Amino acid sequence: MPTHTSDLINFDSLLSDDELQWRETIGAFVVEEVKPYVGQWFEDQHVPVELIPRFGEMGMIGAHLKGYGCPGRSAVDYGLAMMEVEAADSGLRTIFFVLGSLAMTSIHAHGTEEQKNRYLPKMAAGEIMGAFGLTEPTAGSDPASMITRATYRKGQGWELNGEKRWIGLAHLADVTIVWAKVSTEDLIAAGYGDNVRKDREETVAGFIVPRETEGFDPVPIDHKLSMRVSTQSHITITNALVPEDSILPARFGLSAPLMCLNEARYGIGWGVLGAARDSLEQAIAYAGERTQFGKPIASFQLTQKKLVDMAVALNQGQLLALHVGRAKDAGTLDIPMISVAKLANCRTAIDICREARTVLGGNGIRHDYSPIRHAANLEGVRTYEGTDEMHTLILGQKITGIGAFS
């Protein structure tokens, strides 16, 4: 039998026993130790970093990564975890994809063996935190126009200068992966000539930057009306010197950070459905209890239509997420499929949260009920890791073979 009242298609029957157990373990933890407090956390703009070691113990941080102390679970397992966490709050789920999909994946995919062994086990355990610095004040959807630059100083290391903005966890993280332009000449001088294209004057490289690095100044961004259970920073980088071995040398070019973004986008395609499911199930429960004209509002045809439309849309989104996850695990994933899930499921989720709020009436604007908080969060989620417009153009190029990005 379906676990959730919103499940009209017995979605659970499509999951293995191990997947169901994994989901229920995480879901139970979220219900008991997160949901009772998350509304107040949102109001207080509290970031519950105290939970990170607990999630590390449960094998949730970097769950999809293998080796180096990482859990090594499937893509579907990772997606299910993100859905359960986001059923509490999108900001909390953001913490996990910053740690796992972005910071840890950067090191796992592009770092040296020494870097992987040094950082990944502690990050997976929740003992240290990482951040991912790609976006800039003038380079959001167009990361190729970044101005942050790394310059090689022989015998000293790499000197970084520039700015980053909307960088999750940066002022709390022990290390931030900073992506910067670097000249081919400098990479050759540093001994990385075999890994760089010599027909280009410059490329993009990632650098592991410890929080205490002089000249590295992350400042939290305040006055947010979305994503208040997570934190983002504006980083000013002025003559920040990091050791020569701070560079991630396995891959250079913009494809390196974009590979990490695809992992994050995949998790979002699952996660937003948790926010939608939680909003819908609160609306279903409320409609059964709230009486008007002498009977519960769930007995009215218009209310039932709202609930059914939301449930059908949610179930369709779950099928899409599962299909993409199964393809990812099978090695048959076509990358634009991730854009389909991110684009469609964000749209679906925010529509469900808004509609669920209407079922709650005036009571729905208090943090006692989650839909309006979820809807506010999803305004942020819909924007980051690729706006609707960017994913539309990715899919437009897939369909037509023509890039329309500029």
Automatic annotation (TrEMBL):
InterPro entries: Acyl-CoA_DH_CS, Acyl-CoA_Oxase/DH_mid-dom, Acyl-CoA_Oxase/DH_mid-dom_sf, AcylCo_DH-like_C, AcylCo_DH/oxidase_C, AcylCoA_DH/ox_N, AcylCoA_DH/ox_N_sf, AcylCoA_DH/oxidase_NM_dom_sf. It catalyses: glutaryl-CoA + oxidized [electron-transfer flavoprotein] + 2 H(+) = (2E)-butenoyl-CoA + reduced [electron-transfer flavoprotein] + CO2. Residues 16-127 form the Acyl-CoA dehydrogenase/oxidase N-terminal domain. Its cofactor is FAD. Signal peptide: none annotated. Pathway: Amino-acid metabolism; lysine degradation; Amino-acid metabolism; tryptophan metabolism. One of its GO terms (molecular function) is glutaryl-CoA dehydrogenase activity. Gene3D superfamilies: Acyl-CoA dehydrogenase/oxidase, N-terminal domain, Butyryl-CoA Dehydrogenase, subunit A, domain 2, Butyryl-CoA Dehydrogenase, subunit A, domain 3. One of its GO terms (biological process) is fatty acid beta-oxidation using acyl-CoA dehydrogenase. Keywords: FAD, Flavoprotein, Oxidoreductase, Transit peptide. Its EC number is 1.3.8.6. Residues 131-239 form the Acyl-CoA oxidase/dehydrogenase middle domain. Residues 253-399 form the Acyl-CoA dehydrogenase/oxidase C-terminal domain. The keyword Flavoprotein applies. The keyword Zinc-finger does not apply. Belongs to the acyl-CoA dehydrogenase family. This is glutaryl-CoA dehydrogenase (ETF). It comes from Corynebacterium liangguodongii.
